[in-house]
């Protein structure tokens, strides 16, 4: 694989490559565009794991994404230096600068927006959207091609991220956020269309783009030299940068979800401390760690220290695994996530994973909210999808009223059934937990009155 061609300054919505006179690099501009986007801001009210926790501060999708971007930036710097050191004789002058000074911005930008396509209420929101179409209570299946229907019954936040970042909504500019192809290729964990989904392959466990964005994705993949595995259905190998974004996400959610559970009292202090300490001691000096912990008296501060040491240790070990297997990563042929490799070597994460599955992700309060969120999202789809697919001359007054609630940016009346439905899904999947809940209450008559 030619390292000089893995990155590109080309942007969605632009016919040609043009480098701005802006003092920021093209990839720093990506980061800033994401930060200032409304889709990113909405992440502050989207569930990470623990929704609506009251007075105890825990992470939402926005704070999680900022932390993933921080870890991603570190990984980009570390791996960029590895690539420069090992391959500098094969690199152009421009590429030497890219890997030393800009890869970190690409990984940070991709990390920042890796969850931007996730709907309200986390994975239960995804499940609600997919289940609505699987159940097909209104018999709409004949209006869609096989490929289009697969997109809907397998709705996926990763594919939706590509749509959120690249699509042209009604009344808005072409190319979405106008991000570089480098950043877009770095978030494509599953670079295939929905009909190619196959859980036996790491890069096909889910899918990475809807039919509506298929040609955009093809252009991104070809420009950044992703290895094509098939054209019908369209499948690529992962881009080499994707593994770093995935690792940054995995590092953060494993450690931070555990810390949040401690703050909420779901995991007892001593158990949390010992579990994190055992992880850190896989990579660090026992005397140094014990001495520092003995000098800290605040319980939360002890956990915060171990959280920081855990993230640092896993980041450095991730860099080492990438460096040791760099040819496989560059060719997209690696078959496991970086964190899986580390855990197989050390067992460092076993305690956290086992506790999290049993006591965090299946905690009663979490499950109750997931059930409620599922119902909210399902009912919102039921309110908007049938009317938007009903011919104007056949609509009831209630159908017209429902469509009036659909903002113009999401109303694709007159277009194909697939695009009309995607408009509704765009609207509902982009909602925050609070907005979706409030709208559900109002249209169901649970809460009546003017909202200013």
From TrEMBL:
Lineage top rank: taxon: Bacteria
Keyword Hydrolase belongs to the record: yes
Coiled coil regions in record: none
Matching InterPro entries: dGTP_triP_hydro_central_sf, dGTP_triphosphohydrolase_C, dGTPase, dGTPase-like, HD/PDEase_dom, PHydrolase_assoc_dom
SUPFAM superfamilies: HD-domain/PDEase-like
Domain HD/PDEase: 57-263
Alphabetical keyword list: Hydrolase
Name the record gives this protein: dGTP triphosphohydrolase
């Amino acid at each position: 694989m030619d390292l000089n061609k893995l990155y590109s300054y080309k942007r969605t919505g632009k016919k040609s490559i043009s480098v701005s006179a802006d003092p920021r690099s093209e990839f720093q501009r990506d980061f800033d565009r994401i930060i200032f986007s409304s889709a990113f801001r909405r992440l502050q009210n989207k569930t990470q794991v623990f929704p609506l926790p009251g007075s105890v501060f825990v992470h939402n999708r926005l704070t999680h994404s900022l932390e993933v971007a921080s870890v991603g930036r570190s990984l980009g710097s570390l791996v960029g230096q590895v690539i420069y050191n090992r391959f500098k004789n094969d690199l152009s002058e421009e590429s030497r600068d890219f890997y030393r000074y800009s890869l970190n911005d690409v990984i940070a930008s991709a990390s920042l927006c890796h969850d931007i396509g996730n709907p309200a209420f986390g994975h239960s929101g995804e499940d609600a959207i997919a289940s609505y179409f699987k159940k097909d209570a209104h018999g709409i299946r004949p209006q869609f091609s096989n490929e289009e229907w697969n997109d809907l019954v397998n709705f996926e936040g990763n594919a939706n991220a590509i749509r959120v970042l690249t699509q042209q909504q009604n009344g808005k500019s072409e190319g979405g956020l106008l991000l570089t192809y480098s950043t877009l290729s770095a978030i494509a964990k599953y670079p295939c269309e929905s009909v190619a989904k196959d859980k036996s392959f790491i890069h096909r466990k889910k899918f990475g783009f809807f039919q509506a964005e298929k040609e955009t994705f093809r252009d991104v993949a070809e420009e950044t030299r992703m290895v094509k595995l098939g054209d019908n259905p369209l499948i690529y190998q992962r881009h080499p940068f994707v593994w770093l974004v995935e690792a940054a996400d995995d590092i953060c959610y494993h450690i931070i979800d555990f810390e949040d559970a401690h703050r909420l009292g779901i995991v007892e202090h001593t158990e949390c401390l010992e579990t994190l300490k055992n992880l850190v001691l896989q990579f660090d000096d026992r005397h140094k760690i014990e001495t520092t912990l003995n000098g800290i008296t605040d319980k939360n501060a002890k956990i915060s220290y171990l959280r920081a040491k855990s993230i640092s240790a896993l980041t450095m070990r991730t860099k080492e695994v990438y460096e040791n297997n760099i040819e496989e990563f560059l060719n997209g042929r690696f078959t496991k996530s970086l964190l899986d490799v580390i855990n197989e070597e050390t067992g460092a994460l076993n305690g956290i994973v086992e506790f999290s599955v049993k006591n965090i992700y299946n905690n009663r309060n979490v499950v109750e909210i997931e059930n409620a969120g599922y119902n909210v999202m399902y009912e919102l789809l039921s309110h908007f999808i049938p009317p938007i697919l009903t011919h104007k001359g056949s609509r009831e007054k209630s159908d017209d009223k429902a469509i009036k609630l659909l903002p113009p940016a999401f109303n694709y009346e007159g277009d194909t059934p697939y695009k009309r439905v995607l408009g509704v899904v765009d609207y509902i999947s982009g909602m925050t937990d609070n907005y979706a809940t409030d709208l559900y209450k109002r249209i169901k008559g649970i809460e009546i009155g003017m909202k200013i």
